[in-house]
Amino acid sequence: MGYDPNHFIGSPYICWNQTLNLRLALLLSRRVFEDLRTRVFPLSRLMAPKADSSKKADPKAQALKTAKAVKSGATFKKKAKKIRTSVTFHRPKTLKKDRNPKYPRISAPPRNKLDHYQILKYPLTTESAMKKIEDNNTLVFIVDLRADKKKIKDAVKKMYDIQAKKVNTLIRPDGTKKAYVRLTPDYDALDVANKIGII
């Protein structure tokens, strides 16, 4: 491959700067052509890359694999970064020994302090309570202050084998709790009162 000295002389690289020496321009052009002639390009750059047929998987198998991965859900979880509240590092104490006490710490198992005997203290036998029995099919009890309506209902069921429809409670001025236990239509409050011994 030859080179033309007029290639750089008539070009705008020389025209715009008259101070550039012609000899320098010729040397520059010669160097460019020699550089192109002696440069070695790797064969892989000149040739198009071959498609690897071994890596190309069957589209059906690829689709089945993707569907399985989607169905199983995410297989990884992002671990939350622990917030450090101290500037010092310590080895964690991970040893956990099985409990083998030499003596029991509690001598007797704890008993239920609020059983049905404790919840229902006694039935009221006042005139207003009797009127409630006759007119509203309702029994009146003095109960424990800590007892709620659910516990009162369960205690009545356990002690007298009667089903309560509704329970209303109030705390009297003397500090005791009174419960109005309305029975279901299946039970008669008068019969239950006779059975208990109120009347």
| Alpha-beta classification | alpha+beta
How many strands, what sense, and barrel or not for the largest sheet?
4 strands, antiparallel
| Top CATH class of the domain at 116-196 | Alpha Beta
Helix content percent band: 25-40%
- Tell me the total number of β-strands: 4
The topology string of helices and strands comes to: HHHHHHEHEHEEH
Question: What is the CA-based Rg, rounded?
Answer: 50 Å
Overall pLDDT, averaged?
82
Instruction: Report the end-to-end length measured between terminal Cα atoms.
Output: 133 Å
- CATH homologous superfamily (4th level) name of the domain at 116-196: RRM (RNA recognition motif) domain
Provide the β-strand percentage band: 5-15%
CATH second-level architecture of the domain at 116-196: 2-Layer Sandwich
> What is the CATH topology classification name of the domain at 116-196?
Alpha-Beta Plaits
Low-confidence stretches: 13-17
Descriptive report:
The structure is a single chain. The termini are far apart. The protein has 199 residues and is α+β, with helices and mostly antiparallel strands. The chain has helices at 6-9, 12-15, 22-38, 43-46, 59-72, 116-119, 127-136, 149-160, 189-196, and strands at residues 120-123, 138-143, 164-171, 177-183. The radius of gyration is 50 Å and the shape is elongated. The protein has a domain at 116-196: RRM (RNA recognition motif) domain (Alpha-Beta Plaits, 2-Layer Sandwich).
